Amino acid sequence: KPQATIVVANEPSEQAQEAASILQNYIEKISNARIEIEKESEDVAGNIVLVGHSEMIEDLSITVPSGFTFQLDEEGFIIKTVENSLILAGNEDGEYRGTIYAVYAFLEELGCRWFFPGEFGEVIPEIDTISINAMDCTERPSFRVRNIWYSGWAPTTDQDHQDFRLWRDCNRLNTLSLSIPGDGSIRRLISSEEYFESHPHLFAVDKDGNRRSDMLCLSEPEAVKISIRTIKDTFRDNPDTLSFGFAPPDGFPVCYCQPCQDSIPEFNHKGYGDPSLSDLWFRFANCIAEEVYKEFPDRWVLTNGYANRVRLPEGIAEFSPNLGIQSAVIAACTLHHVGDKKCWQRTLYKQLLDRWTDTLNCVLIYDYDPGNSLVNLPFPAIHNLKHDIPYFKSRGTWGFWTEGTNSWMVTHLNYYLRAKLMWDAEADVEALVHDYCQKFYAGAADVVAEYIWTLESAVEQTTSHQTWGRLMQWRTIFPPVQKKLDYLMSRAEDLVQDSRSRKRVQVLKLVHNHMKAYVRMEQVVAQGKFQEGLEWADKMLAIRDEVNTIKSGLLPHTPEWASDFRTTLEWHKEIYRDLAEKADGKEGELLTLLPRQWEFKLDPKDIGVIYQWYLDSNGEDWAKIDTTLNWEAQGYQDQQGWGFWGKAWYRTGFSVPTGIEGKSIWLTIGAVYNRGVWVWFNGMMQQFDKDRHWRLGHHDVRTPIHIDVTDWVRSGEINQVAVLVNTTPPDRNPRGGIHRRSFLWTPR
């Protein structure tokens, strides 16, 4: 029988009513007792739970967080007992959800958890009698902005969105009414519909000398004046608007007019967008912010530090105090923590963030989770989060705008731990993981925890590096720990008892098998068994189907619109199907599989062509190298992860069978990380077609090279192939060399 009553104000806010209803429903789920909700003017006997602001709380001289300014630093809630009353209330001003957070925080004290969205991720204890000790808690967040949002890289249903919205409240995420500088939002400054035809000089010039409507000419004074007017008018018309955000379109937009080009110093900053637009862009943004500040000193002008604008400009003495940045360093390794000395990308990232936070009053972090490829393999990031989020707190950043996906067993605990650390940067991560395992896997808790930390350690210690959208090298990371992880998964299945925990272990096992299937796919492809690789890819798809029968959004399929993107499973299948068709398929017949190990020689002085290293007798001190892995993964990098760049040679001999006279003969080289590749066959340099994935100045990591060598092949003899690869200094894709198996074939 209920011994308490929920009490709200006589005229409760919508949030207080919602919070009271949440508390009522969960108390009933926990105890099977439904407690009533009454107004404070009612005569209520016994214990009471005061939810939201009310006169009763004021009469007790209790201060509840309140207020809303454009500094966004007033958020918080209290949980407090006074005699027979429990107070659950928080800041509800503006868009703050303090009272909602207070209720969920209290429910967490009772043992409720929301590890993942929906019923699958919810843990509700069963308690016959709910009793509490004295409580006196005031909480305020470590970060003002705490957002994770679903990008379109995974399919999302309406129910998924609804579940996610509830999960965000449970774990105290927010978005607030920030005008975020999204890609292409520069159009807000000057309407192309209004100005493009009549004032073309306001808009950027492309390489062909034509004006483009989606980008402004940053050196045009009138563009600055109109932009200032636009923002001031927005703030005048909308006094509650706290920020105005703008950014160029996605990619590396540049105006090619002479004044703009003269303002670009052409710094190379290691793949962070070359040439850098930072000097011109932030001069433009700062000029706007300075003028806006004169009339609206409490409002924010926000832009982003993304693509070709991640580094600081070198020509601005002082920034306007109202200028803020959303730092989105997409070209930084996602496997290692900020400042990791074995990872040059994260060391440079720290240098950039330290400078930005020393320079500006408002810095937001835009990051990516998952931060790996699109093949839906696990992205263990706990080792980074427990280091990086306290670092961002120490630097005074305002918070996070994290690009996530609806793929919760790819990210696993990442979002839950992000939420906990964004609220309290000093939260004990090990304790949170332990709590998760105890509550979610019951009898299998300890072995699941060991599984999680084993995988985390394997990624943390790797000397491989990757950025968002690039292939994570699970073929080198996973095998050393596979036997242990297999054992732990088997033990988890043996130890789990209840049906709910068994279902959760089943999902974890399926995700584990999905990863094993991917690694096996890559292993057999490295052996030249392309058809078998396709079969393993199909097994991965079948596992995804099975997981989706349990819950959507755990291990999803690729959305149709993205299936052609590099690194998706569909992309793998497309490539391996093409290779399988040429090697004993409908298109061709395999003549010989070239060796996996080739000779290898660096050419930092670029003299190999002169000395004809493409001939098997030329050059000294050749090493051996595996042609199914990039050279950095085989030791050609230093202790900071700086890989060799420049030119390097691959060379091998191989037997060609007899009886090929009169046939068309083709050489296929599986794939090459490169910024230039040249191929010699039996001493003659070859020409080959380059499809749409070959772009000047860009790595090609997708396209097999198919070369007609009919005129140069020697039947029944040892033939020679040599490949010269060029790479530029390490950048977003810091890899070089041949990384997929090569073979000789004849069309059917």
Give a description of the structure.
This protein is an alpha/beta fold. Among the domains are: 4-140, Chitobiase/beta-hexosaminidase domain 2-like (Chitobiase, domain 2); 474-574, no CATH class; 583-747, Galactose-binding domain-like (Jelly Rolls), CATH 2.60.120. Helix content is 33%, strand content 18%. The chain contains 19 helices and 28 strands. The strands form 7 sheets. The chain has a 6-stranded mixed beta sheet with strand order 2-1-3-5-4-8. A 6-stranded parallel beta sheet has the order 9-16-15-14-13-12. Strand 23 (677-681) and strand 24 form a beta hairpin. Helix 10 runs parallel beside helix 12, helix 17 packs antiparallel against helix 18 and helix 18 (530-550) packs antiparallel against helix 19. The chain is globular, with a radius of gyration of 30 Å. The protein starts with a strand and ends with a strand. The mean pLDDT is 95.
SSE inventory with pairings:
Elements: E1 4-8, H1 14-31, E2 37-39, E3 47-51, H2 55-59, E4 77-82, E5 85-90, H3 98-109, E6 113-114, E7 122-123, E8 136-139, E9 145-150, H4 158-170, H5 192-195, E10 203-205, E11 211-216, H6 221-237, E12 243-245, H7 258-262, H8 278-295, E13 300-306, E14 323-328, H9 344-359, E15 362-365, H10 382-394, E16 399-404, H11 408-411, H12 414-423, H13 429-441, H14 445-461, H15 474-477, H16 479-495, H17 499-526, H18 530-550, H19 569-582, E17 588-593, E18 597-603, E19 623-626, E20 646-655, E21 666-669, E22 671-673, E23 677-681, E24 684-685, E25 705-708, E26 718-727, E27 737-740, E28 743-747
Parallel strand pairs: 1-2, 1-3, 3-5, 9-16, 12-13, 13-14, 14-15, 15-16
Antiparallel strand pairs: 4-5, 4-8, 6-7, 10-11, 17-28, 18-19, 18-20, 20-26, 21-25, 21-28, 22-27, 23-24, 23-26
Helix pairs in contact: 1-3, 6-8, 10-12, 13-14, 14-16, 16-17, 17-18, 18-19
